[in-house]
PPK2 family polyphosphate:nucleotide phosphotransferase
Amino acid sequence: MTIAEQFRITKEFQVKDANAKKKPLGTAGDDKDGGKAADKLATLKLAEEISDLQNVLYAGHERKLLIILQGMDTSGKDGTVKGVFGQINPLGARTVAFKAPSNDEKNHDYLWRIHKEVPGKGEVTIFNRSHYEDVLITRVHEWIDQAECKRRYAQIRDFERMLAETGTVILKFFLHISKAEQKARLEERLADPEKHWKFDTQDLVERKYWDAYQEAYEEALLATDADHAPWYAVPSDSKTQRNLVIASIVQEKLLSLKLKYPPGNPEYSKLKVE
Amino acid sequence: MTIAEQFRITKEFQVKDANAKKKPLGTAGDDKDGGKAADKLATLKLAEEISDLQNVLYAGHERKLLIILQGMDTSGKDGTVKGVFGQINPLGARTVAFKAPSNDEKNHDYLWRIHKEVPGKGEVTIFNRSHYEDVLITRVHEWIDQAECKRRYAQIRDFERMLAETGTVILKFFLHISKAEQKARLEERLADPEKHWKFDTQDLVERKYWDAYQEAYEEALLATDADHAPWYAVPSDSKTQRNLVIASIVQEKLLSLKLKYPPGNPEYSKLKVE
């Protein structure tokens, strides 16, 4: 079983706190720090391999890689970007954080600002939040009704299929934390003035809707999982295991593409540099 | 004398091969590899510091940093991005490579596509080539005449002053290689089929205009150097010294900004996470 298969959601997928706490890729049990150092080392090695593979992807100028990160506040989307993709050459790789839509964005369909940012040939693009917010926060607060939500699932499936059919590899990660872990992380932010800039009182408001969010995630993921756009549920109470799982799946996928540098041009060997 | 002062161009600035070959930040002379390993280690340390400083810049959401990289083909613009900015968090940092303008871009003034990509608050943006191509390649091939070129120098000065006045720190690097070094690097690319994708026969055409380019660079840099948008001439025949010089100047500049995390919100200490 590949690591990707191990974390791909199934039809029985449920968002339950117990699943957020798992340390599924547990390293040598005799580590005094709970395996953190070993996780980090393994992740760094994978991050470097991802960086090398991205270089070939870039050179090939053919395939496109889209990574989607979703999760509750404090689930570690920024930390994943840094830990898993921090070694990647900024040339050819890009992160896009989608915040509340601007007025101009609201004047368009919800996929408009997303489509503008999808990767081009040879590019890796990481979405920190995405069009999935348009079936999550909007659903939880009942800005859209159930019928509209279902229409959007179908639209998202169609959109992602089109992207896949036109050469985009899509990997979607649900960073799954438990309610208790979010509490601890929010308290940590509140306790440290240097982390206040990351804090938004709105986070506490959204936290009140915890159960509704869990339900919305469960439904959205099940409705939009597909072989060409799979969802991976990543236990994320442990930050180091989270990064290790995601790095493993990305590296595995890139390896499976059997990327090669484009063939050399035989004519070039005849060229002289004056 | 700061490192920045050491490399800032003066009124006597000349583009001469001899200047490209210097190893001005030479490390311990007893290194058997010409100091390469020591250069790399020092650069990595600086790159990590730059990454930490960028995090504070991002948190502060106030200052903007624009890095412009210019230089002849093979001068190492991509290598600089990877070596100096490879440790930076992709969140809040972006590289933009400007190629030959598209039809839509040609329908606008030459600063239009540039302005769209300048950093926002808290952002670091690295330009791999820039609006300077519009006074270099265009001048060398006489697509614009001397009067138009001078008009553009003034427009560029005005544009960059506006960016600086609205909170952008600008650092401009001329990656200076000698003609012999370019020959060696082009031959290396031609010899290795895995590097053919980086090669363009147009590179050999441009190389024939070497002297005209040197003249155009000299004039453009002198015409657009300013305290708020300084040009640094970086000897770049040595890749490791090039990265070390650029990393030093960027780190020095970021330190000088005395960036601080935004003040904590005293109200936050009263908040309870339920």
